[in-house]
Amino acid sequence: MAGKPTLYYFDGRGKMESIRWLLAVAGVEFQEVHFKSREQYEKMLHDGALMFQQVPMVEMDGMKLVQSKAIMNYISAKYNLYGKDLKERVMIDMYAEGLRDLMEMFMRAPFQSPEEKQSTLKTIESKATDRYLPVYEKALASSDYLVGNQLSCADVHLFECILMLEEKFPSVLSNFPRLQAFQKRMRAVPAIHKFLQPGSQRKSPPDEAYVKNVKEVLRF
User: Fold this and answer.
1) Contact assessment for residue 124 and residue 100, using Cβ atoms and an 8 Å cutoff
2) pTM above the 0.90 mark?
3) CB of 95 within 8 A of CB of 136?
4) Rounded CA gap, 50 and 140, in Å?
5) Which parts of 26-67 fold into alpha helices (H)?
6) Which contacts qualify for 75-80: CB closer than 8 Å, 24 or more apart?
7) Is 152 exposed, middle or buried (0-12, 13-18, 19+ CB in 10 A)?
8) How many CB atoms neighbour CB 181 within 10 A?
9) Would you say 6 and 30 are in contact if contact means Cβ atoms under 8 Å apart?
10) Pairing of strands 63-66, 57-60
11) How confident is the model at residue 2 (pLDDT cuts 50, 70, 90)?
């Protein structure tokens, strides 16, 4: 029997958080190794564990998986979160990529100066309400799911992104009733409800300690 997947990253959200979400929704238990020092990271580089000398890295099924999108696609396909055919998959990818555009702006913000961060947050709010959320509101007009008739990774990413948006902009869904209903349905999914509880492996918003740790390990 294969062991639990092992996630190699920092003790924070970053590019690993969406991977954590997918594993949690799939009901897969996982363990984590957090980088605490530059030496720990350099050892992995020396051992050849990081194909492109980057993290996140997920060790599962006898493989060392890198590149966030490849990791998420593998998990989604393995655990039936990636549609039933090629047409559904490309739609799932389109919706997921839009969400990643927003979430990557969130990931960059903690590493910016206060002025840059404030500008980034204004851009996120504007793009979310004017460009991105209307697309997902429309997609949910005739179904409980973004694509097809079952839960996909796109739905999981959308729920994760909504939570991130509401942390900064509590009323962001005020003009999107279908997204409000979607959020309520997603919260009722047992695996999601469990992951939202205190003590789960879900990470808190990035703080100064996380930023300091990342900068020290990656030296930037």
Assistant:
1) no
2) yes
3) yes
4) 39
5) 38-47
6) 75/19, 75/22, 75/23, 75/26, 75/28, 75/153, 76/22, 76/152, 76/153, 78/26, 79/22, 79/26, 79/27, 79/28, 80/150
7) buried
8) 13
9) yes
10) antiparallel
11) low
Q: What is the pLDDT of residues 120-170, one digit of tens each?
A: 999 999 999 999 999 999 999 999 999 999 999 999 999 999 999 999 999
**How many other C-beta atoms can be found within 10 angstroms of the C-beta atom of residue 150?**
14
Chain segment 64-117, per-residue pLDDT in tens? 999 999 999 999 999 999 999 999 999 999 999 999 999 999 999 999 999 999
- The pLDDT of residue 220 is 85
Tokens 């205190």, residue located = 198
- How far apart CA 133 and CA 130 sit, in angstroms, is 7
Tokens of 215: 């900068």
- Give the mean model confidence (pLDDT) for residues 20-47: 96
CA 23 to chain centre: 11
Please count the residues of the chain: 220
Tokens, residue 12: 């924070």
